[in-house]
Amino acid sequence: MRESSATRLVSIFIVACGIGVCGGLLGVGGGVLLVPLLVVLFGFDQHRAQGTSLVALALPTGLLGFINYARAGEVHWTVGILMALLIMPGVMLGALVSSRVAHRVPARTLQRIFALFLGIVGIWQVISSLSRL
Predict the structure, then answer these.
(1) 105 burial class (0-12, 13-18, 19+ CB within 10 angstroms)?
(2) What is the extent of the structural domain holding 10?
(3) How far apart are CA 101 and CA 92, in angstroms?
(4) Can you tell me the distance from the alpha carbon of 125 to that of 42, in angstroms, rounded to the nearest whole number?
(5) For residue 127, with 0-12 CB atoms within 10 Å meaning exposed, 13-18 middle and 19 or more buried, which class applies?
(6) How far apart are CA 58 and CA 80, in angstroms?
(7) From first to last of its 133 residues, what are the pLDDT tens digits of the chain?
(8) Residue 34 CA to its chain's centroid (Å)
């Protein structure tokens, strides 16, 4: 049975609220949470989920999160500006090239690479947090 458009929109809104909470609390959201949820819960293929995540979250999440952290005095302006000037051109070039490469990779393979990446990051976080005890 196919869910109605209204039900699908409400489901997406609820998932988005959860992602917003994780973004504000943990600094993660789009690529880490939205992409797998779009694939698993809403049946997107990996390519469409990644593209949707980029358009849906990059500006609004980053901007709102930045505003709140800046108001709380939690922005190191010098480092942030240096990162914008020195790191962002490389990030932008890397994103441009890798997004073109991603379209040549089958969706299932891309999904497995993404899952492997998340697993490695997760293991790294666990080890890092346990080593500080």
Answers:
(1) middle
(2) 5-131
(3) 14
(4) 28
(5) exposed
(6) 17
(7) 456 888 888 888 888 888 878 877 777 766 788 888 888 888 999 899 888 887 777 777 678 878 888 999 998 998 888 878 887 788 788 888 988 999 899 999 999 998 998 899 889 889 988 987 7
(8) 6
Record the tokens describing residue 119, joined without a space.
Answer: 């697993």
The phi and psi torsions of 87 (rounded to 5 degrees) equal -95, -40
Distance, in Å, from the CA atom of 124 to the CA atom of 118, rounded to the nearest integer, reads 10
Q: Among candidates 7, 29, 27, 5, which has minimal Cα distance to 17? A: 29
Alpha helices for 1-133 (secondary structure H): 5-26, 35-42, 46-71, 77-82, 88-102, 107-131
Q: Which two tokens stand for residue 105?
A: 């990779």
At 105, is the secondary structure helix, strand, or coil? coil
Total count of domains within the chain: 1
Contacts of 75 (CB under 8 A, 6+ apart): 66, 69
The DSSP output letter for 84 is I
